[in-house]
Amino acid sequence: MRPVRGLARALLGGLFVAAGSQALLRPGRYAAAAEPLAEQIAPMLKRLDSRLPTNAEALVRINGAIQVGAGVLLATSTAPRPAAAVLAGTLVPTTLVGHPFWKVQNVAMRRAEQMQFAKNLGLFAGLLLAAADTAGSPGLRWRAEHAAKHAERAMKQAKKKVTRHH
């Protein structure tokens, strides 16, 4: 399974490196479509920190840079689970801005946008699987439960020793 997992991560991550590079290098291509979303989230960003950029072009660049960075991390299996989770987060605004089929009047164009939207949902699902994939190692939940059981056993043994000595 290891070669399949590595190939899948490389292909999935590589897609985001390529797409993110386009957004990073040519944000103007996407800024007009991103403007309505940028206007919606600008007040929240201003509340978080007034120094944060709120214009569409800057937000497109930031999203692109995050996609490039997280895509490299996923493709190289450096930090695949967090990278996949981050990429899933970047895919939400990318999909909403890039493929708003509900706004398209032309039937053929609407169908094409619906297909692209559905494709991105498939990518999102793949990213969720990659984010949950422990590659056969125990996950955080198992590790936490195991540590709690171990601590409980150690406490019981310590309590027995104390009661024996008194």
The rounded Rg comes to 23 Å
The largest sheet is: none
* Total beta-strand segments: 0
Uncertain parts: none
Mean pLDDT, as a whole number?
Answer: 91
Q: What is the ordering of alpha helices and beta strands?
A: HHHHHH
SS element count, helices: 6
Q: Please estimate the helix content.
A: over 70%
Q: What portion of the residues fall into strands of 2 or more residues?
A: under 5%
Helix-strand makeup class: mainly alpha
Shape summary: elongated
What's the N-to-C terminus distance?
A: 55 Å
List the helices and strands and how they pair.
Layout: H1 2-25, H2 28-48, H3 56-75, H4 80-98, H5 107-132, H6 140-165
Description:
With 166 residues, the protein is mainly alpha-helical. 82% of the residues lie in helices and 0% in strands. α2 (28-48) crosses α3 (56-75), α2 (28-48) packs across α4 and α4 (80-98) runs antiparallel to α5. The radius of gyration is 23 Å and the shape is elongated.
